[in-house]
Design goal:
Layout lengths: L2 H42 L3 H7 L2 E4 L8 E6 L2 E7 L2 H7 L2 H4 L27 E5 L10 E3 L10 E3 L6 E2 L5 E2 L12 E5 L2 E4 L17
Antiparallel strand pairs: 1-10, 2-3, 3-4, 5-6, 6-7, 7-8, 9-10
């Protein structure tokens, strides 16, 4: 082999070696960048609470009459919205009646903290409840006042006979869980927004114990 050929071969090997090092270094750098970026990318993926918050539904209460119930469907669930009367609210606080409730103080996690009160809602006038019995998956029947089927206004499950008061508190039946309260807020004086919490609480229906 002459000197010129030897030099060309040597140069070719050197070029190939440099190319290999460049490719290897670039690949390692890309992996390192991807590894460093992964926590940021993962943070950008919305969690269940954020995804649920995107599924919003506004309900207009302007035409809702006293003691009237409206049923809307949100996230494939029936949602009961009731305009409670003064008589309903007074009956809900009667000591004799309260003594019959299984979870009068809403200690079981069936509602967000902003609905953990005697009326289980933001505004006492309006009930917002998931309309599914917490003992068996039936839709409770609403009674705006006492009837042959219900000793008071509220609900009765046609499948297990559990009674719920106008706040969805269980009594006189098989279920020991109150009806769930969905995440919601007021978007106007007479409008509620299902799916958006009234506070910065990260509450969704995944948070409840029974639905």
């Amino acid at each position: 082999m002459n000197a010129a050929a030897s030099t060309a071969t040597s140069d070719g090997r050197e070029i190939n070696r440099r190319s290999f090092l460049y490719v290897t270094t670039a690949a390692a750098g890309a992996v390192g960048t991807a590894a460093a970026a992964w926590p940021l990318i993962d943070q950008m993926n919305p969690d269940a609470y954020v995804r649920a918050a995107r599924d919003l539904m506004e309900v207009d209460l302007a035409q809702l009459q006293p003691a009237e119930q409206r049923v809307v469907h949100w996230r494939n669930l029936p949602i009961f919205v009731v305009r409670r009367t003064l008589e309903m609210l007074q009956a809900m606080q009667d000591e004799t009646f309260v003594a019959q409730l299984y979870d009068a103080a809403s200690q079981t996690r069936q509602q967000p903290s902003y609905a953990k009160n005697w009326h289980r809602s933001i505004d006492p006038t309006y009930a917002v409840l998931v309309g599914v019995c917490t003992h068996i998956p039936c839709i409770p029947t609403y009674y705006g006042k006492a009837s042959l089927f219900s000793m008071a206004s509220g609900y009765q499950c046609p499948c297990c006979a559990t009674h719920y008061d106008p706040a969805g508190r269980a009594y006189a039946g098989l279920s020991r869980y109150n009806l769930a309260v969905p995440p919601y807020s007021f978007s106007g004086p007479l409008k509620i927004l299902l799916g958006q919490n009234a506070t910065d609480e990260r509450f969704s229906l995944q948070s409840v114990e029974r639905i």
